[in-house]
Amino acid sequence: MKRNDIITVEIKDMEFGGFGIGYFEGKKVKIKGALLGQIIKAKVKKVKKDMVEGEIVEVIENSPLEKQSFCPHFGDCGGCIYQNVDYSDQLKIKEDIVKKLLEKEGIRDYEFLGIVKSPKEHGYRNKMEYTFGKDKEGNEVLGLHRKGRFYEVVMTDKCNIVDDDFLKALNLTFDYAIKKGLPFYDKKTHKGFLRHLVVRKASKAGEILLNIVTTTELEHDFKELIEIYKNANFESRLVGVLHTQNDSWSDAVVCEKLNVLYGKDYLIEELLGLKFKISAFSFFQTNSYGAEKLYETVREFAGDVSDKIVFDLYSGTGTIGIIMAPMAKKVIGIELVEEAVMSARENAKLNGLENCTFIAGDVSQKLKEINEKPDVVIVDPPRSGINPKALEDIVKFNAEKIVYVSCNPESLARDLKIFSEKGYKVEKVKCVDMFPHTYHVETVVLIERK
Question: Kind of pairing, strands 13-15 and 19-24?
Answer without folding.
Answer: antiparallel
